[in-house]
Amino acid sequence: MRVLITGAAGMVGRKLIARLAKDGQLRGRKISALELHDIVAPEAPAMPGVDVSLHTGDLAAPGATASLLAARPDVIFHLAGIVSGEAEANFDLGYRVNLDGTRALFDAVRLAGFAPRLVFTSSIAVFGAPFPDVIPDDFHPTPLTSYGTQKQMSEALLADYTRRGFFDGIGIRLPTICVRPGKPNKAASGFFSGIIREPLAGQEAILPVPRSVLHTHASPRSAVNFLIHAAEIDGAVVGPRRNLTMPGVAVTVGEQIEALERVAGSNVAKLIREQPDDTIWAIVKGWPTRFEAKRSRELGFAAETSFDEIIRAHIEDELDNKLAG
Amino acid sequence: MRVLITGAAGMVGRKLIARLAKDGQLRGRKISALELHDIVAPEAPAMPGVDVSLHTGDLAAPGATASLLAARPDVIFHLAGIVSGEAEANFDLGYRVNLDGTRALFDAVRLAGFAPRLVFTSSIAVFGAPFPDVIPDDFHPTPLTSYGTQKQMSEALLADYTRRGFFDGIGIRLPTICVRPGKPNKAASGFFSGIIREPLAGQEAILPVPRSVLHTHASPRSAVNFLIHAAEIDGAVVGPRRNLTMPGVAVTVGEQIEALERVAGSNVAKLIREQPDDTIWAIVKGWPTRFEAKRSRELGFAAETSFDEIIRAHIEDELDNKLAG
Ligand SMILES: NC(=O)c1ccc[n+]([C@@H]2O[C@H](COP(=O)([O-])OP(=O)(O)OC[C@H]3O[C@@H](n4cnc5c(N)ncnc54)[C@H](O)[C@@H]3O)[C@@H](O)[C@H]2O)c1
Ligand SMILES: NC(=O)c1ccc[n+]([C@@H]2O[C@H](COP(=O)([O-])OP(=O)(O)OC[C@H]3O[C@@H](n4cnc5c(N)ncnc54)[C@H](O)[C@@H]3O)[C@@H](O)[C@H]2O)c1
């Protein structure tokens, strides 16, 4: 089993690599080679007996993708991308990486002709307001950001390239991955994690939107579970509609804060400071709220069932199971 | 009023030009300039006092689009494209013209910075089976052809570029335009017109699919009405969802043939010969059937209400109001 990961230095990429290193196998076959690509140098995991290669470069640069395929990976995880806030602020960069980079990778796979399984991380940002109360699987994508547009266009390519047999693609629309570990990034969704992560580390956090904002979340653990399941699922069972809305926990920001109080106490939750930000609010208010995610659940994709669970996953995975203070 | 038309030598383009020549105005303003572009030399209409320029070239060639914008058209009709059958047979050509050509035009408009109204002819081929009985406006596009994928991706760009203020776009998803005049083209939908047009001209026509096939049609006249309305409609009323499914007449092939018998007699309808074609059937069976088209009707887009009317429009516009024989 040979695996290629783009965006390997990113948050989800690093979690996925750690999981593959632990499992040592994918689709019931021992992992023999791991190719890791990112524009930032990716870190090599300790995987004795596995041929790990590190590639550093711009996926959207001419010719960058073909060389990644020389070893004919059985499974490709395409995670590289520019996050929503940055893709909105920098029009050219977003289209170049998220659309042209993705298309370059897809075309390199097409021209290489060996039709691997290709898992692509799309986003619920393909949807845009106004929404019904529960967004059904067959609701139309009308993104309200360039990031969402780029993901939507990539999904369309993935479906067509799969239909034509160029590869065997599965697009997974991730909900917001929360609690995101590490430093804040430029995603407009950053505060959803910040208001949990910073207080748990004894630090103040800014809440830029109203507490009534309803949003869907899944933990980094669940994101990795989705990816592994997407790599292993039988394509024939999925059928021609290859872009799947992942399950998650739909809660308001107020409910997130209540969960934090339950799990870590009200002194921790008091570290959240409300400071409205119109730019973030303008983006977030067009975002989807609650999904049915019927197809993905039926296909065996599973996430947490409460936000308390999401907070506990963070405490276990990132804080050595210890609360500060 | 300065108008630019791409695909000006095509069927819809020529009908639109004839209509603009007759009206002499658009959006309540006298047409002063008409720029016509196509890869096939477009014909200049007789429009005294109007500055008509003809451009022949490949829209997808580097730099081709910028020169078309030198005169800063107030309204752009983007009709150029490769039809469904050809885009399916020729992967590279379809993506190059329908996606890259469209993106090149959109980017040239973006960089020129004068934000004109831009009307784009999308297609109901953005939808793919399985379908509910009536396809609602908020049904997800899951095209089953590369042509449909290219139209879907262009729609996504149009919405994002409009949201960003680069232009003021309206995407109109045309149903099958029927009766298509002239010679058969390479569209997989060609037979829908052929079974009416050829018998009316005293010639045999091939029916490659079962009579039970249900499909939505509008006349070339209606297509032009849609385009004019899309050029004139108030963008604020349309709102952010800029891609609209046009109304049409939903009939089975059997009902088309019954209408032909009613309008032209059973001797004419007898000229249709059934000869199943698996390739065409494979494409057509994934096509959409009946649309709600609620938004477009509410926004004032109107089509015929019976297939008899569609046949009569053809007899009036193409056969000098005379039946053969
Ligand atoms: N984290 C979330 O909440 C979330 C939600 C929905 C979708 N996603 C998608 O999941 C994927 C992974 O998300 P993440 O949270 O790990 O993001 P991340 O920003 O942590 O990782 C993305 C990686 O892509 C790399 N990258 C950027 N430009 C590149 C280029 N030109 N060439 C090569 N690599 C480049 C970055 O260096 C980064 O390491 C992304 O595609 C993201 O859009 C994430
Ligand atoms: N006719 C229909 O039933 C129907 C249905 C849905 C959508 N549409 C869309 O409406 C538009 C017009 O349709 P039509 O029936 O007039 O099609 P058509 O084929 O008659 O016209 C398309 C024109 O585009 C031109 N063209 C092709 N490649 C080009 C290139 N590289 N550069 C410049 N021009 C190029 C062709 O020469 C042709 O004149 C197309 O975009 C089509 O996809 C048509």
Automatic annotation (TrEMBL), chains A, B:
Pfam families: Epimerase (PF01370). Residues 3-204 form the NAD-dependent epimerase/dehydratase domain. It comes from the Bacteria. Keywords: Carbohydrate metabolism, NADP. Coiled coil: none annotated. The keyword Nuclease does not apply. SUPFAM superfamilies: NAD(P)-binding Rossmann-fold domains. The keyword NADP applies. InterPro entries: DenD (IPR050005), Epimerase_deHydtase (IPR001509), NAD(P)-bd_dom_sf (IPR036291). PANTHER family: ADP-L-GLYCERO-D-MANNO-HEPTOSE-6-EPIMERASE, NUCLEOSIDE-DIPHOSPHATE-SUGAR EPIMERASE. This is SDR family oxidoreductase. The lineage of its organism: Bacteria, Pseudomonadati, Pseudomonadota, Alphaproteobacteria, Hyphomicrobiales.
